[in-house]
Amino acid sequence: MQKLSNSIQLAHCLLKDRLVEANIIIDATAGNGNDTLFLAQNAKSKAKLYAFDIQEQAILNTKKLLIENKNNINLPLENIKFIHDSHENINNYIQAKIDVAIFNLGYLPGGDHEFTTKNDITLKTIDKILNVLNINGYIAIVMYPGHEEGLKEYQAIKLFVKDLPKKAFTVGWYKMINHNLNAPALCWIEKVGEYA
Ligand SMILES: C[S@@+](CC[C@H](N)C(=O)[O-])C[C@H]1O[C@@H](n2cnc3c(N)ncnc32)[C@H](O)[C@@H]1O
Q: Which of 47, 107, 118, 139 has the fewest beta carbons closer than 10 A?
């Protein structure tokens, strides 16, 4: 499978090793459940996985996909929480430290664009997760600068992450430089030290 041509595949590649040890895992944008399924397939059996979405239909689709695949995932279904709420309310649901989180931003392909992620909420949530991320924990963020709100989000995330203290985080930024400028891009953040 080609990995470098697809920011989601690349994000999965980067998260895979970390998932083996992760206890608390977040899918911040469940959508149709493909990322939740990937996380559940690669997590250890005792991990807890939380999938958020503001669209009830997305939560139902994700739940359905996970139930259909219950024999192909490492986690018992009761370790997966499907949360119909905005990821900015994460602290209402999770008090433990987080090991792995993924954001696959934007709107569902073919879905209502009204439900796209918004840069202020996304940044607020990323910051909340950075504060409770375990050392060696990872956040992967797949961004879509090809639509208006997605471009604002991409630019806001870039401004925010480039100034994160390097004693606390290592930040990677992936863009295909020989493709269209608007092609999906990937940001990943590894916590390497305390974040005061
Ligand atoms: C590109 S889709 C996610 C794709 C999904 N991960 C998958 O594998 O199918 C983006 C999703 O983010 C959701 N979303 C937008 N704002 C959100 C928020 N504040 N909190 C949680 N989900 C949100 C949308 O409803 C949409 O389903």
A: 118
